[in-house]
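hey team, just a heads up i'm posting the complex here instead of the shared drive bc the drive is being weird again. everything in one block, sequence lines first with there labels, then the predicted structure for the whole assembly after. its two chains so it's a bit long, scroll down
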Amino acid sequence: MTEFTLRSNLDAMYTVFLARVRILSRYRGWFLMDIILPIFLAAMPILLGRAVAGTSMEGNFLKNVGTANYVAYMVIGANLFMVVSNSLWHFGFWLRNEMQMGTLESLYLAPVNKIIILGGVAMYTTLRSLISFFLAFTLGCFIFRVNPFQGDIGIAFLFLLVGLIPVYGLSFLYGSLVLKLKEAEALINIGQWVIGFLMGIFFPVTVFPRILRFIAEIFPPTWMNNGVRSALLGLNYFLGEWYLDLAVLWAFCIIMPLAGYYVFISIEKSIKKNEGVGKF
Amino acid sequence: MEPIIEIRNLSKIYTAKERKGVFRGKKKKIEALKNINLDIYKGEIFGLLGPNGAGKTTLIKCLTTLLLPTEGTVRINGYDLIKDENSVRASIGCMLMGERGLYWKLTGKENLEFFAALYHVPRKIRKQRIKEIVELLNLEDIIERPVESYSSGQKMKLAFAKSLINKAPVIFLDEPTNTLDVYSARELRSIVKDLNKKGHTIVYTTHQMSEAEELCDRVAIIDRGEIIALGTINDLKNSIKKESVIKIEGIIKEETYNIIKNLKITKKAAISSSNGFSKLTIVTENARRALPEIIKILLENDSTIQYISPEEITLEDVFIAKTGRSLSQDTRVI
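-- predicted structure starts here --
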């Protein structure tokens, strides 16, 4: 008889992770795109700024944002946007793909808790996001002549790691919608720009009107983005100290995954009561 | 005998949307399973037969935890379907989606390793288990290749291999010989028999009556969500033995079929046609006595007869006798 041990569960999680890595290795273009896209994304506002403001750009940026290093600001923002974007949408895309391939039913037939499978997928997304972040950031710094070793790298890395956890909570919410609506693309097309806007990839959210700023501040990636930038470029943290901002992110780390998982399980149950997970 | 699957008062109702034009739609409740009561015994090959849309797949999806039943209880290998979901899953091996359900970008071996881990097969015996299955199904030549390069039949074989990975006491096989060539289908049926001899209980769905007759110890015929016949193949055939069957193949018009259907000597009749060629089955009390009158009607109505014979009763005839329809007719409600 099958024994459900901690070891066998961890082994199942690692196998899900390994299968994703193997599939990625057979679509190498995906990874290349992860590295190149943030550079293009950062290049547009940098070049636009240079064209519009010319030599006074650094002064204006310093006055409004608190740093003259607008290039590093954009490179960090664009890279973090890609990290959030990959982590957030990947789960929904994965789910949709499994639905269409018929493998989702195979996963549901296996005697393994869904949290184990989700954990394996999250491990893969984290690794892919972090590797592409570091490669794209290094390449971006090299192209735009930015020193990548400035500021407090340790704290920035902490914000990046902790900030990913609530993103997975959000990704479970998105996955629930995909499970229910059997659609991934339209949701991404809308959500992608809302997220980029709310987390302030090219500007500080302090320039938002009050209501919009409030909405941005209940969105965890905004805190991650601001934390990483503040640590690397010496900007102001929202609550004055890095550990206070990090504490807010920790709170999101508890709330968002629990909320995401709860909604996912509820929708999954309602689907199993009706047409089942096999319909796509 | 001890039941390994106990189904009590199982019902499944779900809501489906009926599309009317681009924007309009209407929700409709579908009663896919109606109060199913069934015991499947340890060590038997049990056949589930019925036309498309009869409820076979819904029943299997309920038994394999993919769908939640609306009412009723199910115990598999002693575990409750709802309360002990993972223990039920560990007790079953499934081949439900044919060649779907595999990762086409991974090799056959990587697929088997993946599912072995999800079924908690310990690492130390995993390699050996996969080797045994690969040898059993003669997959040695293709196992290291990505699944996307497989033929349809090879994918079906790998899907079958996947269902054996956890050496489960109960194996569900949904139309496993679909897309297999004659030789591979025969090979698979022989493996199913061997697995059964080793003590596995097999639940087998098929459209092919000959396959069910060859393999199954008992069968249940499902129609419109209900079990309309249950027993051994001989029991079911004997249940209509006092009747007999005439089979006619040729070009037969719908009106001619209606005339024959409404004859006093006809108990039940069913016709299936494709490309203008028809197969007519007539269940009557005495085939030899009814034959002259039926031939007369066919000739009077310009039918072309290619084959006509009073025949031995098959499971298909049992279905026609019970429902008045052919198994190839779709009974889907939506």
